[in-house]
Amino acid sequence: MRSAAALALSLLAAALVYGPTLGGDFVYDDPRFVSANPAVEQGVPLARYFTDPGTQAADRSFGGLYRPLRTISFRVVRLIGEGPAPQRAANLLLHLLNGLLLFFVLRAFGCRSPIPAGLGVGLFLLHPAAVEATAWISSRGDLLALTFGLFALLLHLRPGFPAATCSVAAFLAALLSKESALFFPLAFLLMGAVRREPRWRRLAAHAGILVVYVLVRFEVLGTQAFGQEGGIGLGPASLTAGLLSSGPYYAALILFPWWISFEIRLVWDAATVAGGFLLLSGVLAAIWVTRRRQPGVCIGLAFVVLALLPVTALQYLIPLKIMVANRFAYPALVGVSILGAMLSGRGRKPAILLTAVVSCFLLLTLREAPKWVDSRRLWTSVLSRDPDNPVALFGLGFDELRAGDPRMARDLLVRAARIDPGYPKLAVCLGRASQILAGRSA
């Protein structure tokens, strides 16, 4: 009964924090993937979502993405209701469902005390790093991938052939929601090793379905199957430096998220690269040291590392167009929550400390979530921290153009062009703004 009350309190707090965002508009890429996408608005035969990657976006571009279940989920919600509110509500419900699944994961790993389990779920639901995935409709894939991944994990831990079969099916659904879910078999392997229950046959089945997924992805996407159009164009040495520097970024995002912002431009130097190397070495050492006597701590730390693997080390094989993003850390929050719950179960002082941390995160999330209500508020908040951010300058300029202020739009777009002249669609929008102004002056 106490466990149910602790869980309900965490779920209610998250629902209240994100509730005001339900009245928001479509933001940033939402029109491209959702509101202006014919496959979402009018629908297509079910098989086409899996065989035609052009159904993912209004302009039929897919840039190395293969997330059919994300697009199908947009379509299903569109059948329920029109506009952004139902889509936003679906994101919030998935986030709350992930918190519920995490509660059962914590119990499966021995965290049965209500206060640590409730705090662990609260840490996940109310962490500011979850705002981008939850409040941005286009980030539905991150939510779905974790939902199916956690289902796969819970079923993997249960005995019997039906549970094993459903676990494999859930893992496949996670992959079809977002490719970053490919780390889950490694998480299953780790947890089996720590619990001394490896279940090799099940792991072989997960590995087999991963191979099938890769083959299908290659068949559907062709040459773009393993990367987003070449990624950000870094050589191996620069990519290594950037990926090592992303470690301190994600550590700061998870531990000290008061500086959080959207579309962060990662800048690195020798100090950040060295810091990233030392951080990674320290975390790996801690995982090794705690593997026997403190398995909960080991699993929490290792889950964080594995969850970030697809967006860090695997960029050598599957390059992305951005180096870091807050939504990339969403699955890693599961590991953070496991770690927090296990530590807070050691006594009254750790529980009080984690309660204070969750309370601070709640306040930060209250500050961050409203920024996703509309594009203007989002881009203004980004520019307040990074005045030369080309993505924010383009986004705000595009919004000004749609709002009927071509002069302001042109000024913003010119600033974006000076920083990143090759930004997609920048030249088109700048030309449109200049054309409108020329027509008015004539």
Order of helices and strands: HHHHHHHHHHHHHHHHHHHHH
Largest sheet geometry: none
Nearest-angstrom radius of gyration?
22 Å
Helical fraction equals 55-70%
Q: Tell me the overall shape.
A: globular
Mean pLDDT: 86
Assign the structural class, choosing from mainly alpha, mainly beta, alpha/beta, alpha+beta, or little secondary structure: mainly alpha
Describe the protein.
This protein is mainly α. Helix content is 68%, strand content 0%. α1 packs antiparallel against α6, α7 runs antiparallel to α16 and α9 (140-156) runs antiparallel to α10. The N and C termini lie far apart (74 Å).
What labels describe this entry?
442 residues; mainly alpha; 21 helices; globular
Brief synopsis:
The chain has 442 residues and is mainly alpha-helical. It is built from 21 helices and no strands. The protein has helices at residues 2-18, 30-35, 38-41, 46-51, 68-80, 84-108, 114-126, 131-135, 140-156, 161-177, 184-195, 200-221, 236-255, 270-290, 295-308, 332-344, 348-368, 375-385, 390-402, 406-419, 426-441.
